[in-house]
Amino acid sequence: MRGVLSENELETGAKGLLNYQSLNGIETAVQLLITALNKHLRIIMVGDFDADGATSTALALRALGAMGYRHFDYLVPNRFEDGYGLSPQVVDQVIKRKAQLIITVDNGISSYEGVAVAQQHGIKVIITEHHLPGETLPCAEAIINPNLADCHFPSKALAGVGVSFYLMSALRAALRQTGLFEQQACKMPNLAELLDLVALGTVADVVPLDSNNRILVYQGLNRIRAGQSCVGIKALIEVSKRDVSRLVANDLGFSIEPRLNAAGRLDDMSIGVELLLTDDIVHARKLANELDNLNRTRREIEQHIQQEAWQIFEQIEEKRHQIPNGLALYHPEWHQGIVGILASQIKERFHRPVIAFAPAGERILKGSGRSIYGLAFTGCP
User: Which of 25, 42, 50, 69 yields a CA-CA distance of 20 to 30 A from 370?
Assistant: First the structure.
């Protein structure tokens, strides 16, 4: 049931983690980051508006700060105004922030136009991703994605936060070789301290728990249970009324993740990133309460949309006696931040690929799709 095929896959120690060196593009990305450090270039991290994107962003920013970077910031696209990924609109915002290097986390593999616009303005782009690529790739300076056809990294199941963790691990190793930490008389950062974020993002994105992901989640959960997580995760656990000493992966997926994700679904995921970046427990509790309230609203909207969707299916079954092989749904009152959840639930109930649409203003619809095993939307004509 858990996909364990050998005794070696039962390893839970950090020593069992795969080496970053087989990730294509990682050496180029590291060199770009070292150049950025030496030349004091301004880096903008472009995240995604889900829990994997928030944890990926927070992890990379915390790691860069710990390794001596000072000129960096982040931007999470607004779901309702900017759309997904490194779009030209997002690049325009990045340009206004005087970026000289963009790093995408948990997005970018389909951002052809955004990458081109950035490069037209002299901004280099590093893409860190895990989603399946199309037939062509953006012309970024570096792309790190275990699912690229020519990437030999054994685990194809890394979440975005896992890719971010591996890039930061490779960067730390390279900086150590240059003697940077000794020159600055500073302690080399212990990136294991960020595994709480890796565990949360990995479980939240529902990627397969292969042997490598199992180690990442195990190690991160151990840190959380020991009270060694960032204060943002501690505050989310408090507001979720969970016992931190007995926390399990299901708690991350069904209690912590929905509250973090609520920011991106209904408001602005910057709230979630700020929560994961702060070291002030009082501020963290305030933000966690905001997210808890947003999650309550999300649940109310979701229940209403579910009822409307099931009514639609009852009508279909009455008229056609069977559900079509593929499903596309739309309702003028649906919320574009919730249709992804709806699509997932319909897919699970009827075992059909689903795209659910909601109005996005000015005669525009925005949709979210979920497909069944063996049929990827990226491979459809």
Answer: 25
Closest CA to 340 of 380, 368, 301: 368
- Would you say the pTM of this structure is higher than 0.90? no
Residues in the chain: 381
**Distance, first Cα to last Cα, the chain:** 33
Say if residue 272 is exposed, middle or buried (CB neighbours under 10 Å; 0-12, 13-18, 19+).
buried
CATH of 323-370, one of 3.10.310.30, 3.40.50.920, 3.40.50.300, 1.10.10.10: 3.10.310.30
pLDDT digits (tens, 9 = 90+) for 325-359: 888 888 888 888 888 888 888 888 888 899 989 88
H/E stretch holding 126 reads strand 124-128
Give the tens place of pLDDT for each residue, 167-198.
Answer: 999 999 999 999 989 888 788 999 999 999 99
Q: For residue 194, give both structure tokens.
A: 């960020």
Question: Domain spanning 19-284 has what CATH number?
Answer: 3.90.1640.30
DSSP 8-state code for residue 193? G
Any residues with CB less than 8 A from the CB of 338 and at least 6 apart, and which?
265, 298, 301, 302, 305, 358
